[in-house]
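Whether sequence alone determines local backbone shape is best considered at the level of individual chains. When preparing material for the folding task, we compiled for one chain both its residues and its backbone structure tokens. No coordinates are needed to read the tokens, only the vocabulary itself. For completeness, the protein is quoted in full, as a sequence line and a line of structure tokens:
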Amino acid sequence: MSTQLISVGVVVAKRRLKGPWASHAWLPVAVLPGLPGTEPWTRLSASEDEETFYAGSYEVELHPAETAHYGDNLAAARPSLWVALRETGPETYAVATVTADPYEGESLAEGIGEIVEAVPMPPEIQAEVGAFYRAFHVERVFHKRKRDRADPEALARQGAGARRRPEEP
């Protein structure tokens, strides 16, 4: 199998919350094509309500068996990459995964303990995923199976050696 790796940089935001239970929330907000020459957890911007950080790099892995999923993603109104952050300690996070497969992204969101967000897929990455899709996708024709019709006579027949009910008096 021929897999392809796409290097990306992940940008996360620390947003101020107004609720009584938490003062802020971390969430992925963007993916950058390629590997920026910035150290992980470098602050990119800051305002009163939000700080953004370059969280680090990750390699998105594309598999030929999942090309139909990538096609669904590219055909969507907003192609996305799903980014999962995992808490590694108090107020420290690491990029757990980045995927272009929307169904894998959906399954990541069902878990507990990771922060998962769909972020817009940059045009450069869309082009790479599209090229991979065109190179490896094989359309599979759906064949609906037909059920065999039951033969009521076959169910009623009793052949030699079949169990018989004891004779009633």
Summary: The chain is about 20% helix and 40% strand.
